[in-house]
Amino acid sequence: MAKNNTSAQKLLTIFLTMILIVSTVCVLIPGTKATELTPQQKAQTLTTEVLGIDTTKYDMHVETHENAPDYLNVVPRYIVAQTLTTDQNSVRLFYTFTNNGLQQLDIYSTLTFYSLTCMM
User: Fold this and answer.
1) Any residues with CB less than 8 A from the CB of 14 and at least 6 apart, and which?
2) Tens-place pLDDT, residues 77-91
3) How far is CA 118 from each of CA 14, 26, 88, 104, 106, rounded to the nearest angstrom?
4) DSSP 14-47
5) Per-residue DSSP letters for 57-97?
6) How many C-beta neighbours within 10 Å does residue 8 have?
7) pTM (two decimals)
8) 101 — phi, psi (to 5°)?
9) Between 85 and which of 61, 71, 74, 90 could a Cys-Cys bridge form, CB atoms 3.0 to 4.6 Å apart?
10) Enclosing H/E stretch for 108
């Protein structure tokens, strides 16, 4: 009977030690999360990779409006305005992001206006 009692104590000690080790590891190691791009980074990526604009050829000014009025008064939206200027021309790009995706892109040039609206 004493042998069963010591085996049970050893098993309980091993079990509790493992719980202590796992708990310590879970507390000390931070949770990893995928990094998400900011609206400014998304706008820069869209400008260079999708629109194909070489931003090194322009003087660039960026404004961010993170407290823009909500879309349909429900979904928060972020507006990033980029102004690209050269000696001859100026182009303004307005990116509107909702639900971590592009909702609308407005392009203003000295001669033309383009608007692209993405349906959610």
Assistant:
1) none
2) 889 999 998 888 888
3) 58, 42, 31, 6, 11
4) HHHHHHHHHHHHHHHSPPP------HHHHHHHII
5) GSEEEEEEEEEEEEETTTEEEEEEEEEEE-SS-EEEEEEEE
6) 10
7) 0.64
8) -135, 165
9) 90
10) strand 101-109
